[in-house]
Write a structure and sequence with these properties.
alpha+beta; 4 helices
């Protein structure tokens, strides 16, 4: 069994590695994909396509006025990330759920940094078969979805994580 220090160190490494990977891949996408046609791999199952997203998931809210986008996508996101961290600490979540939260927070923080610094998020990956495709996303989005999945899976099998009645 890992010590509390070991768990915390592991979570910090996961957060740092996730943010670093997201930052590097967005920089590479900006320098190699911007202005270029999309690139297709594995019989068009995987595409690389540069998009600057001023909205949220799948461009939701991209056409909202700037003050509303800032309030919802920056301020509300920061508050939500903080609330989740506090909740996890107060409820003493198990290690798998903490890993999920660390991934979720790392992705959220990295995309939040983009919104605060540039007013947009760089997205560049798309997967699918034929006409059934995902939206265009980035590494931070993958971390957010994976982290949320781990938290939900852990909560489903660890009733102690559920909120009190």
């Amino acid at each position: 069994m890992m010590t509390k220090i070991g768990i915390r160190l592991g979570l910090l490494v996961a957060i740092g590695a996730t943010i670093a990977c997201d930052r590097v891949t967005k920089q590479v996408a900006a320098t190699t994909l911007a202005g270029a046609p999309s690139r297709s791999f594995l019989a068009d199952t995987f595409r690389l396509e540069y998009v600057e997203n001023t909205g949220a998931f799948l461009g939701l809210g991209a056409d909202w006025p700037l003050p509303i986008r800032v309030a919802v996508f920056s301020i509300a996101t920061a508050v939500l990330l903080l609330v989740m961290a506090v909740m996890a600490m107060r409820r003493h979540w198990p290690s798998p759920a903490l890993l999920g939260l660390a991934l979720l927070m790392a992705g959220g923080v990295s995309n939040l940094l983009d919104r605060v610094m540039f007013g947009r998020v760089i997205d560049f990956m798309n997967v699918g078969l034929g006409p059934v495709r995902t939206g265009i996303f980035n590494v931070a989005d993958v971390a957010i979805m994976l982290g949320a999945g781990i938290v939900l899976f852990t909560a489903a099998y660890r009733p102690s994580m559920s909120p009190p009645n």
